[in-house]
Amino acid sequence: MMLESITPPTTSAADVHGTSALDQKFQVEYSKVARTFNGRSGSFVAVRDIDLQVRPGEFVSIIGPSGCGKSTLLNMAAGLLDPSEGTVSYSGKPVQRTNTDVGYVTQKDSLLPWRTVERNVGLPLELHKIPKDERKQRVSQMLRRVGLEKFAKHYPSQLSGGMRQRAMLAQTWVYGPHTLLMDEPFGALDALLRTQLQADLLEMWQREQKTILFVTHDLEEAILMADRVVVFSAAPGTILHVESVNFERPRDLMELRSTREFVDIWKRLWNLLETQINVSGVSQ
Q1: Is the model's pTM score more than 0.90?
Q2: Whether the Cβ atoms of residue 70 and residue 64 lie closer than 8 Å to each other
Q3: Of 42, 43, 37, 50, which Cα lies nearest the Cα of 82?
Q4: Cis peptide before 83 (omega within 30 of 0)
Q5: Furthest C-alpha separation in the chain
Q6: Ramachandran assignment for 111, one of left (phi > 0), alpha (psi -120 to 50 degrees), beta (any other)
Q7: Which of 124, 133, 204, 211 could form a disulfide with 27 if both were Cys (CB 3.0 to 4.6 A apart)?
């Protein structure tokens, strides 16, 4: 079941953002950021020396070996963690508390089992004190957009894995956050569902131009989805390389996989990642 379809004009990644977006302050910015965790066995540096700027409306993928601090990066943007050094800014201001302007999507099922799909999707609107009539209208529109309008009265246990993931995306999107932080949202799905949801997400992003930071272990996914791919080193995580992905949008993900340009980028980034996998002693 596909999302409500759209047919945007063919554009490049630069055209998607437009001159006005490029002239704006950065939506998310990490300036000389480090994060250290302290425990009984000592301290652990998760990330260090992070300098990264994300423009409004940009789709940025983050990839690297397991345990290199990718999720830590998102948690700091969400205000769930403070940096030990440096500054994390959102829309030009330091993040000093929980950042309610961002939505957070993970692969973990966050739907409440005792709530129907429509009540799960509407939960953020309840928490934001949105009036009931407006809440009902926005939930209905969002369920239609993600293709779940016929399942509004169902419970999470009655949905497939892909449908639950759509419901979680709708739940995050419904209250209108300017930025989405996505931590391996499709990692637990089979290849067919993952490919379909990748296309679905890009359709929604193309329409509304939210800023997306997208953590993944899948190099192919990172390249196909993003305007830029940020490659992390093994822990402690640092930025090894930032690759611009200048394929036109909207993208035909199946066709793009077979192009020479895609294969060249994949090989270049894989060679870089392989050195870090050997260092960390883990596999992708």
Answers
A1: no
A2: yes
A3: 37
A4: no
A5: 56
A6: beta
A7: 211
136: its two tokens = 């009902």
What distance in Å separates the CA atoms of residue 251 and residue 119, rounded to the nearest whole number? 33
Model pLDDT for residues 5-41, shown as the tens digit of each residue? 323 333 434 444 444 444 458 999 999 999 999 888 8
Rounded to whole angstroms, the Cα distance separating 55 from 51 reads 14
Tens digits of per-residue pLDDT, 54-86?
999 999 999 999 889 999 999 999 999 999 999
pLDDT in tens, 220-249: 999 999 999 999 999 899 999 999 999 999
Tokens of 1: 């079941």
Min mean pLDDT across 11-25, 56-70, 124-138, 142-156 is at 11-25
